[in-house]
Amino acid sequence: MSDVAGDGTTVYRAPTLSDVARLAAVSTMTVSRVINGHAKVASDTRERVLAAMSSLDYRPNMMARGLASGRSRSIGVLTVDTTLYGPRAALRGIEMAARDRGYSVTIAHLDDPDRNAVSQGAHLLRSRSSDGVILLQPLISEVHESTPPTDLPPMVAIHAGTPGNYPVVSVDQRLGARIATEYLLSLGHRTVWHLAGPDLWYEGTERVKGWQDALSAVGAKVNPILRGDWSAASGYAVALQLLKAKDVTAIFVANDAMALGTMHAMHELGLRCPDDVSLVGFDDTPEAEFYWPGLTTIRQDFDEIGQRSVELLVELIETGSAHTQHLVLPPKLVVRASAAKPRT
Fold first, then answer.
1. Are residue 38 and residue 13 in the same domain, yes or no?
2. How far apart are alpha carbons 30 and 64 in whole angstroms?
């Protein structure tokens, strides 16, 4: 907004709560209730206040709101390596959902998967004024304590490899792997090889189980597992070994990056995808449709993962309880051109 100073010059000032109330023809208390999501505001009044806020470009003072409520309106995220697509995409989903609810996000990295490290990281984020913590921790702990820590701040976990006394949001990794393997079998492949992820990752172990489930259900041969580290480079190196077997016609690769490395190895060996070997990946990264050929893969909706985890955490922060302890989201098969019937 602009005011005219005593010397006749125009001076900008930020709009206030009173300005919004005046424009919307309501009290400042009503504006405050709309900002804080109070239920007892008529819908037409709420719309009028929101329109006034938009017209004036009014932005609530989050620090003042925090002081009034006794909360910082900040969410902490404990996460592992964000150079990997899964953690990076989940973090983006969390940030979008938190912003929509008026929360900021503070990030701390977690190197060690055990419960002590989780507890220490959560307390660190609380010391930085986080109202609650989302644990983005897919690594499986090798430490099994008989009594998990109970003095944690409000916490929700995503794909938690370390179980604890907090709600968990996850995608059904085992189901996704089974769907991928069943799709390849439905095309007529006698069996499906698996290029797996690291065995200390929750996703890695669950995807192996789903692959085995699908093969066992039809009595198909379960070949030895070869593992990569989620990178395209490891997919390339492992695929060079795997493709030496003469009976390889279909491979379920545990993530899209390793599938890209597998395609590169096939090219070097003079093999064509899907004419010689069919591939299905996992994650549906933004680049997957632009591989050549486009990669058939399993999609995880990371925006929904972020939305649901933030919803549960805000529920915990504001009410002290969550409506569920384990929310499982379904994966989805995305069919492109990298898988086809085997040659006869």
1. yes
2. 17
